[in-house]
Write a sequence for this structure.
């Protein structure tokens, strides 16, 4: 009991020595803090780019972020990504700054679980929040680069505010996700992936897309040479394979089959070569 009281007293004394203030941090001040920073974890360029987008777009909320933390020497020990983002965005923001923290506490910083887009969608009462977050992320990549690929391969994942804004701008993603789930039940591949494919192809021709997806699901009355039959065979093989197609390859095959279907071309074996001497460009659905 006595040891517990002593520990509590020591903690109280330590907390009383901290200085907490709101400081306006300009790119110049951020550069000074980074210059005097002791050894820290490796910078994530993707995370910095995400923060820069938020700051430039006006989505950054000064009162919603974690505090910037300085040790007893006044050196930055938590907040380096935000400081780099301030510099790269050219913006100035107010931050809660806590000074006088023992540097040894750095080992337990950022060890908690951060909220994800799926977490926020769940809090907003959305159905299937993880799958909905998936189709939002796929949609961000599709709108940015015209490719459907897994987040992190090339395009930067949307921030939570960006993801919510994208859903508000494209509310039909919910219905496309439902349609995608009905395909994934038959073919595998994931509801979010099929949902964004449904979104992309319905934007081109709703009637053709409706029949295209129905034939993918059922395989009914498909003749030899049908690109949809070739696609089904390839994707059903992938569903039981130990080495799965990447999202980029998977969706390229779907778009190749779609283009052949729309053009009335026969396809016996469906393939796509993303590299090598005979590399193919990622197909654009038409």
């Amino acid at each position: 009991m006595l040891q517990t009281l002593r520990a509590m007293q020591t903690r109280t004394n330590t907390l009383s020595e901290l200085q907490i203030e709101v400081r306006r941090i300009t790119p110049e001040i951020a550069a000074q803090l980074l210059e005097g920073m002791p050894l820290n974890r490796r910078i994530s360029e993707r995370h910095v780019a995400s923060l820069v987008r938020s700051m430039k777009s006006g989505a950054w909320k000064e009162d919603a972020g974690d505090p910037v933390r300085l040790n007893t020497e006044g050196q930055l020990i938590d907040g380096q990504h935000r400081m780099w983002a301030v510099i790269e965005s050219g913006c100035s923001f107010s931050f809660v700054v806590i000074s006088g923290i023992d540097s040894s506490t750095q080992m337990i910083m950022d060890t908690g679980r951060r909220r994800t887009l799926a977490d926020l969608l769940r809090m907003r009462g959305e159905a299937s929040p993880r799958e909905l977050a998936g189709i939002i992320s796929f949609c961000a990549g599709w709108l940015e680069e015209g490719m459907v690929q897994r987040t992190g391969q090339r395009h930067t994942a949307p921030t939570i505010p960006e993801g919510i804004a994208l859903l508000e701008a494209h509310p039909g993603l919910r219905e496309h996700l439902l349609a995608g789930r009905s395909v994934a039940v038959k073919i595998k591949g994931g509801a979010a992936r099929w949902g964004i494919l449904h979104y992309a192809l319905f934007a081109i021709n709703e009637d053709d897309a409706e029949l295209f997806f129905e034939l993918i699901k059922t395989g009914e009355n498909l003749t030899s040479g049908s690109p949809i039959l070739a696609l089904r065979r390839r994707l059903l093989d992938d569903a039981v394979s130990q080495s799965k197609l990447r999202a980029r390859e998977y969706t390229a095959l779907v778009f190749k089959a779609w283009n052949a279907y729309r053009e009335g071309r026969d396809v016996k074996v469906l393939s796509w070569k993303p590299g090598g001497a005979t590399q193919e460009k990622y197909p654009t659905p038409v």
Observations:
- The CA atoms of residues 68 and 97 lie 5 Å apart.
